Each structure stands twice: as C-alpha cells, then as structure tokens.
Amino acid sequence: MGGGWGVAETIGNNILDSEDAPEHNSYVRESVWLAFPLSVLPGQRFVMVLSAYFDESGTHNDSKTVTVAGYLSTQSLWSAFDPEWRRILSCFGLTKFHMTDFVAKKDDFREGWEDEAKRRALLGPLLSTINKHVIGSVGVSMLRTDYDAAFDSKAAVRSGGPYGLGATWVLLQLARIMGFTQMQGAIKYVFEDAPRRKAAVQKAYDRVKVNPGLLKALRVESLSFGLKAHYVPLQAADVLAYEVRR
User: Distance between CA 137 and CA 4 in Å, rounded?
Assistant: First the structure.
C-alpha cells in the first residue's frame, strides 16, 4: 500500500488553489469556511466526493497470483490527468497504454520499441503524471493456493472469487485510510468493464449496499465500470496492478 496521503485541509486547498482551478472558486472557499462552526478543526472541514479507479493483474486461469490495485484522487485532479496522459501517448503515436504489453513488447509495442531510451522516454513521463495527479493508492495480491485453502466452494461463491475478495479488501482499506486522515467524504469506484471480473466486483458490492450502515462506513458513493480506452485513469491503475503483482 502506498501513496501520498495528506490531511483533508491540504487536499482541499490543493483543489481550490490549483492552477487548473477557475477564478470563481473563491466563492467556493468562502462557502466551505462558512459552512462549519469554528469548533470544527480546519483539517476536518472539507467534505468531498473522490474517485478511485481499479484494475487487476493475474486473473487469467493459469496465474498463481491475483492482484487488485488502483489510485484515488479528486475529480479536479483526474480531469487534469486525462488530457496530460493522452498527450504523452499521442507523442508516441499511441491511443492507450497497457503495462503487460509494454513489458512484453507486444501488440502496440511490438514494432519499434526495442530501444530502451525510447521506452524510458514514454514510461517516465507517464509515471510522473500519475504521481502528480493522485492522492493515494492501494493494492492487494493473494496467492490462489492460499485463497483455495481458506475458501470452500460455497464461500468462494459468496466472496466473488479471489478478484471479488480483492475488490472488497480495497474498499475496506480506502475507508480505513480516510479515517486515519480524518478526511470526510465518499468515494466513487470505477473498475474495468470485463464481463467475468465485473460480475465478481458487483457481487462484492451487492453484499455491501444492502446494509446502509456498512455502505456509509466504507465511504462508498457509487460503483461503475468502464473501458480503459475511455476511462484513462484505469490505464494508470493497470500500471500499479502490474507492479503490485510483481
């Protein structure tokens, strides 16, 4: 588990003071301050909806390890991340980035990607863009043998398999981290839209949403699914999932 976590006040100020923020955000600042009594500490005054994007690695049948990992940030930062990521890719004639293909030098990276200097020239700026626009990251890896030993067939169905269990774990961890940082708010979760994995995540979410108290405790605002080509932060999550699995 990693990422650059800070107190809620710092994150909120970054949103309102960022170079990308419109000038009229001054009234937002004033409204936020007036919305809380002075007895509420500054670090607890920011209530926001965050977005977390998660991807997997190792869910194919012959994989010994299953990983779920992703990044958390504000909508403002994700909005700035998207065009910057796409701009870097376009400089290399690419429309999307898949870490496994990049490492294996296949598909989009089959021809003309033998030069290590060129590879570093792409990966370096992509990683810098991630670090600049995210406020936290979380990931989990588990051995299939450990999962199979701990879960019988009935429990495996209820958990949604190792991927469903991993999805549940990241929900728990992000809620725990937000509690540590005293950050008030909720999280919109976006997972990759892949049929079999989607069903596993949905199963995990369905177990949570029937309990309003648990839903609130886990800070879950919503759950949705998207394609990596359209949801660029999922491409960043793919990078993290690959590294966590390694």
Answer: 8
Residue-wise pLDDT for 203-228, tens only, equals: 888 888 888 888 888 888 889 999 99
β-strands 65-74, 47-57: how paired? Answer: antiparallel
Token pair belonging to 21:
């923020």
Summarize pLDDT for 73-106 with one digit per residue, the tens: 998 999 999 999 999 999 999 999 999 999 999 9
Residue with tokens 């890719």: 89
pTM above 0.85, yes or no: no
How many alpha carbons fall within 13 Å on the CB side of residue 50?
A: 28
Cβ contacts of 63 within 8 Å, gap of 6 or more: 144
DSSP states along 6-61: --HHHHHHHHHHSTTS-TTHHHHHHHHHHTS-TTS-GGG--EEEEEEEEEEE--ST
Nearest to residue 198, comparing CAs of 172, 216, 223?
Answer: 223
d(Cα 67, Cα 70) in Å, to the nearest integer? 10
Residue 187 and residue 148 in contact, taking contact as beta carbons nearer than 8 Å:
no
